[in-house]
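Below is how a single chain appears once it has passed through the pipeline. First comes the sequence as given, then the structure the pipeline wrote out for it. We keep one example in the README because the format questions we get most often are answered faster by looking than by reading.
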Amino acid sequence: MALDINEIRKGYRQQFIRRIVLLCALGIATLVSFFIDMAVGPSMLDFSQVIRAVFSPDTVELAEKVIVWEVRMPYAIMALLVGACLSLAGCEMQTVMNNAMASPFTLGISAAASFGAALAIVIGLSLPGVGGDWMVVVNAFLFAFGATLLLQLLSSIRGSGPEGLVLFGIALVFLFNAFTGIMQYIATVEALQQFVFWTLGSLSKANWDNIPLLAILFLSTAPFSLASAWQLTALRLGEDSARSFGVPIRRLRFLSLLRISLLTAGAVAFAGIIGFIGLVGPHIAKLLIGEDHRFSLPASILSGALIMSLASILSKSVVTGAIVPVGIVTSLIGVPVFVALILNRKKR
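Resulting structure:
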């Protein structure tokens, strides 16, 4: 028996070290992709030029410093933040919904954000005192968060479980899509063009004014997700098993959905509709790390940030002299990766 326990401890240590190494590898890959993202663009810069501009800005020309710090770094940082938010939200949602196909957009949050953005773009309706580009951001965030509160209210009426939440979410998707369709029908050509571009997903609005807001939102939400890691892991064993471990299922699900809504609303508000990141990122993390949420949650954050950073690089490389909306690139990347994950799951 002692030998068996020693073998178990040895196997656990090996698995623990392997997971730490994989997390470090994901972190390094994300960091490298971040610097490559700053090097790629209409004015191509060498990797060494970017490194010097970041760490020794006084040693480079003024033009290079401005390109890196004022144009490309906000774009690259926003890509990391949006990817991290969506992937973390997706990991939590797949767990609390007990559905591998769940993503931050499953419950109609993105549809609500789109309707809020349409109100701002088409008819200029927002909160008093809010104007300019902030109307779209504020509306998208408020409607996304409001959709989550409405979802909680509907599900609490009959105490619905994950299946009920998904069904209510699908209903909200169709409801807000209908409202958005009305906005598109009455929109002018200019307003419709602007709204369609927003729905394609873009990082072009990234600047040093809005990055701190999304960073604060992520940094104030992620620690609570990580603190719930053992409860989320227990939930993967089934609700009955989780209850036997003392996990408060309803409270856990409510707080998780609250975090999911905040993360998704923030990402959608600043970058528009970005598909597949919240679905594929957690799957890649769990494929590498496993279901232990102490590791799969940070792995999801890093994998989402990495995928979004790579999509940002491709969006600036596909068409010479132009930037393709990053939402299109994530879909083009996400579909084959998602199909590969499904086929791999079937084999396993």
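The domain at 2-106+184-347 is CATH 1.10.3470.10 (ABC transporter involved in vitamin B12 uptake, BtuC).

See the next section for the split statistics.
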